[in-house]
Write a structure and sequence with these properties.
heterodimer, A: alpha/beta, Rossmann fold, six-stranded mixed β-sheet, 11 helices, 39% helix, 23% strand, globular, B: 515 residues, alpha/beta, MetI-like fold, D-Maltodextrin-Binding Protein, domain 2, 3 domains, elongated
Chain lengths: 264, 515
């Protein structure tokens, strides 16, 4: 089969901070290709190195060894401002600029590139994340947590990125908001034709949203499976320990819904 | 105290000078502290070092810090040439700037350290360069906290700027120091009121800017800034140099006699058509160097002071020899012209209350040797460091139970209230007679003479008009006349005169009424 070249390639990536090796601890670094158009979840316990690996993509972290290739180019060789326009970034802290209005927050990426985002485009982006265009004039502290993260997503999409990277994007949200926003992001992924990499410690979220799940443990990539394969028991012990939690929860919930069978 | 209100309008010049000095110091401190805070945010060592240095400066009393810049600038003249000013605006600006650094620096560093890390990550995440991150995110978010630091610095600086008087920079300290020395409390209060009012006004205006920044109310921010700017521009306008020749500058050290003589000299020069300016309340050491460098043109100094402080002599060759030596030395070493002796001495002498002296049986310094350890001696702030004191102490073998420092005018009050048993009085002081004090005899001649001299700076030493106007003062003022004038200024009853009035009265008494 003649597959297209991957949009993103981790090539033997190792990240060390002093004596601690956060990524690539098992030796040889992390190597992995991500195809254009895929929705990849990067799952692992706290400290497994998943956020660090993600941040090498937009050069918030520089690999100690190895390279990250984006569209075939080493990301550290690209101008940060240009790279970060092509790579939308959403993270748990959201980080809306409190002294900018919602509209100004959304328009910041293009503004840094010397381009003024027209109000219609800001309204369109707000509608994409299901917010009233009138929100553009509000200040971030007037919004709820869910609304703020929607603005965060809109800001990440403002530059028309090819790649969306998300670091625990819904971690601080309540379950209802979290579910709704997760679905919305998946929908945007489809309609905008994005490539998405999402870091999460929640295997259920990964299984429901992604079409490929990477599992990290102690700085090493230990599994690379489809959600279906993981649910079927593939991927090894670490992946299975993570996958067993939502599977068992689902089974227990299902059992509660059909109590009559046992009693009949 | 109703006359305070009459004094206020006359302080306009001092207020303008005070505003310009304080604003310049704050502005310069901001120019230094803010970039330093940015640097400190990127380097822990710089942060520690900068904050420690700024804190260290704060531990130096403001008065000492101001005074220290005089010798520093004097020594820098070898590098920058004789044109470098050693008194007045430049040293005051430097000292106050150093003083204002700490609050601005500390608040700016703290504000940066406390910025939301999520916001900083977002700034990187959207692709900001370091400069964009600083100007678009860090600076605006830290601005209200930095403003709070600038507010603190402003209030401190406006307060400390009153001390600039002591190094010859006009400020609201002029009326305060002049009033303290002549016990003119209305003048002290007027100076304090205006400087406190200025500090309060600055504090409130800057608070408006701070709130405007914090709540992102542009109207408040820019409105506040506009008023501050208007105040500074107004002060600068009031301070604009008149397009005239430099006036003759007359110094007065911080005691009544000096204020009176400065006024006497000034009135004669004005009568002769000169424009004059006064620098009041200067420290003794500052005055002499200032005259030598022509920063100041005229001062009254005393032979004993110059003998020990500048010629570094401890011997006592007698009154005439001392005068001639000093006259020659001033001309040769400093280019300063000693026009002559005014006619009276203001020597150090030890004085006691009459009843106390009688009870202890003390009439001379020799008698003090036995009872000294039971007594408290009071002196002016420099007295116990002076060679005169050391000479007397060693000549008689004196020792006292306790030594205390008082401002010259308060020494007599201390004597009256019993807080001191013996004081280092001055022979021309009117209160010796008024308080009926006993001046102790000096049989060993340990105390040198203190003839009052008229010194002219190199700049005006050859000015025939000045010489003609001042020549009649030489030998004209008896110690009795000087005592009377001093007492008129120092007394606290209805007969109290201002130094200007006392100078006019003195001129009349000695037959020198302005022609």
């Amino acid at each position: 089969m003649n597959s297209p070249p991957p949009l993103l390639r981790f090539d033997a990536v190792t990240c060390r901070f002093g004596a601690v090796t956060a990524v690539g601890a098992s030796g040889g670094g992390v190597t992995c290709d991500i195809a254009a158009g895929s929705f990849v979840a990067l799952v692992g316990a706290s400290g497994s190195g998943k956020s660090t690996l993600l941040k090498t993509v937009n050069t918030l972290v520089h690999p100690s060894e190895g390279r990250v290739l984006f569209g075939g180019e080493d990301v550290t060789q690209l101008k940060p401002a240009r790279l970060r326009r092509r790579v939308g970034y959403v993270f748990q802290g959201i980080g809306l600029f409190p002294h900018f209005s919602v509209g100004e927050n959304i328009a910041i990426g293009p503004r840094l590139a010397g381009e003024k985002l027209p109000p219609e485009r800001i309204a369109e982006l707000l509608e994409l994340v299901e917010l009233d265009p009138a929100f553009a004039a509000r200040m971030p502290d007037e919004l709820s947590g869910g609304q703020r993260q929607r603005v965060g997503v809109a800001r990440a999409l403002a530059g028309g990125p090819e790649l969306l990277i998300m670091d625990e994007p819904f971690g601080a949200l309540d379950p209802v908001t979290r579910d709704a926003l997760g679905r919305k992001v998946r929908e945007l992924h489809e309609t905008l034709g994005l490539t998405t990499v999402m870091v999460t410690h929640d295997m259920a979220e990964a299984l429901l949203l992604a079409d490929r799940v990477l599992v990290m443990d102690k700085g090493a990539l230990v599994a690379d499976e489809s959600p279906r394969a993981l649910l079927a028991g593939e991927g090894g012990p670490v992946a299975q320990r993570l996958a067993s939690v939502p599977r068992e929860q689902a089974e227990r919930l299902a059992a509660m819904e059909t109590p009559a069978e046992g009693g009949a | 105290m109703g006359d305070i209100w009459d004094l206020l309008p006359g302080l306009g010049d001092k207020l303008a000078a005070h505003v310009v000095l304080s604003a310049s110091a704050i502005g310069l401190a901001m120019l230094i502290a803010l970039p330093m805070a940015v640097w400190a945010d990127r380097s822990r060592i710089v942060s520690r070092l900068a904050l420690s240095l700024a804190s260290l400066v704060q531990t130096i009393p403001a008065l000492a810090l101001l005074a220290l810049f005089f010798p520093l600038l004097l020594s820098l003249r070898s590098v920058f040439g004789e044109g470098l000013p050693t008194l007045g605006f430049l040293p005051a600006l430097m000292a106050l700037t150093l003083y204002a650094l700490l609050p601005i620096l500390r608040n700016a560093v703290t504000a940066q350290a406390n910025l939301d890390p999520g916001v900083l990550e977002a700034a990187d995440g959207v692709g900001m360069t370091k400069w964009q991150k600083l100007t678009l995110v860090e600076a605006p978010l830290a601005a209200p906290f930095i403003m709070a630091g600038i507010r603190t610095a402003s209030v401190w600086t406006i307060g400390a700027a009153t001390l600039a008087t002591t190094i010859g920079q006009p400020s609201l300290g002029d009326p305060i120091f002049a009033g303290l020395q002549t016990q003119n409390w209305a003048l002290v209060l007027a100076g304090c009121l205006v400087s406190a009012g200025l500090a309060l006004a600055a504090d409130n205006l800057l608070w408006v800017i701070e709130v405007g920044l914090a709540r992102r109310k542009r109207g408040m921010t820019y409105g506040g800034m506009a008023i501050v700017l208007l105040g500074i521009v107004g002060a600068l306008w009031a301070q604009r140099p008149a397009n005239e020749e430099r006036p003759v500058i007359i110094a007065a050290k911080s005691f009544s006699e000096q204020y009176i003589l400065a006024q006497l000299i000034g009135s004669r020069l004005e009568a002769a058509g000169y424009r004059v300016e006064y620098r009041d309340g200067l420290g003794s050491a500052v005055v002499h160097s200032a005259v030598a460098s022509s920063s100041i043109d005229i001062s009254v100094d005393y032979t004993g002071t110059i003998w020990s402080n500048y010629l570094k002599r401890a011997d006592n060759p007698g009154r005439e020899a001392m005068y001639e030596t000093i006259r020659a030395w001033e001309a040769e070493a400093n280019g300063v012209k000693v026009l002559g002796r005014l006619g009276f001495e203001n020597a150090y002498a030890f004085a006691m209350r009459e009843d106390r002296a009688r009870a202890l049986g003390v009439t001379s310094l020799e008698d003090l040797v036995a009872v000294g350890p039971r007594l408290t001696v009071g002196g002016d702030p420099e007295f116990f460091e002076r060679p005169e004191w050391i000479a007397v102490r060693d000549a008689y073998g004196l020792s006292f139970g306790r030594t205390r420092n008082f401002a010259p005018t308060f020494m007599y009050n201390a004597l009256a209230s019993g807080e001191a048993d013996v004081i280092s009085a001055y022979t021309s002081d009117g209160r010796i007679a008024a308080d009926r004090l006993v001046v102790l005899a000096d049989p060993k001649g340990a105390l040198p003479s203190y003839d009052a001299l008229l010194l002219l700076s190199p700049r005006i030493a050859g000015d025939a008009g000045v010489l003609a106007a001042l020549q009649p003062l030489i030998g004209a003022i008896s110690v009795e006349a000087m005592r009377e004038a001093n007492f008129a200024v120092d007394r606290e009853d209805a007969g109290k005169l201002t130094p200007k009035q006392a100078a006019a009265e003195l001129a009349r008494k000695v037959g020198l009424s302005p022609e």
